[in-house]
Amino acid sequence: MSTPLAPCIHRMERTGPERWSARGGDVASRLDSWSEILEGTHLHFEISPTHRTPAGFRGNVVRRAMGDIVLVDCASAPFRGRRDRSTIGAAGPVAKENVLGFQFVCRGVETVHEGDREMTLSPGSIAIWDGLQPTDIEIVEPFHKRTLLFPRERVRAVCPRLDELGQLPSLDRSGPARLLVRYMNALAAELPQLDADAAVAAANVALELLRAVVEPELPSGRAAERAALRAQIRRHVRNHLQDSDLGPTTIAFAFAMSVRALHALFEDEAESVAVIVRNDRLQRCLEDLQRRDAGSVTEIAFRWGFSETAHFSRVFKRRFGATPSEVRHLAQLGAQASPAEPV
Fold first, then answer.
1. What does residue 94 show for φ and ψ, rounded to 5 degrees?
2. Burial class for 312, CB neighbours closer than 10 Å (0-12, 13-18, 19+)
3. Under CATH, which architecture does the 223-332 domain have?
4. Which CATH superfamily, name and number, covers 18-216?
5. Model confidence over 293-337: pLDDT tens digits?
6. Could you tell me the pTM of the whole model?
7. Is 342 helix (H, G, I), strand (E, B) or coil?
């Protein structure tokens, strides 16, 4: 079944998997269809046939979303795909492509040239790839892979030293990577049965497992220790957003440091600790406002630590460009929309 592609939004109600199949009367039209499917579910590639591409080319994608972390199954006959510097960003904002993919090969053979890396992936292979890197791929044998797509900023939030990696690591001998593969396979089976809160928790677990995959490859040192502590504090904030007293004082106490030391730890960051708390609360409020069964605007504001609704409405509109009541009204109407990006 072919389904129209839609942008990924943060609304997380229980839904079944989305499915796409390449269509067309000849191989050229089927590959054109396949290119559109990959652009909407993975990345934009320039697709071309090889001598192995059959006249009856087949390609299928199944996508399961957990908010902005997405689990994708992709199966296809042989073809060739290319992303160069001119291709990256050609299909829209680069932010859509600013992802890391954690990939497990279930069947077939794929060759990959990404930057300075060359890989031949076969059944059982595990790889991590960068959506902003020029890449050439060729499916050599009919292929099935399963991939978790992580927004880079979500990975940076738990693994702030990510950019210190010279290149993404090889994962075939990584114990944490094999554990994440098992978890990814369990997600494929269980996601349709999870409610919204469980899906959020499942996405956070996947993110923590990816951190365990990447962090052993990172260098250590004083700067690394400070970055790791900031990541721990960010996780503490996310886990305690419903505590109305959450703020610099309680966070400093939880980590046995002074408030002054806490502020110094974040002095070179784009956001202060207080701003991190506020923005994380606003994001959780946005997610609840987009759920029709999450309660009133006031209930949602109080649930996530805001104690005054007028103040909540002001800071929400300043961040998202729409009032909480406007977002709630769209949700009650069943609209599949979200407000503008934070400003």
1. -60, -25
2. buried
3. Orthogonal Bundle (1.10)
4. Jelly Rolls (2.60.120.10)
5. 778 889 999 999 998 889 999 999 999 888 999 888 887 776 444
6. 0.62
7. coil
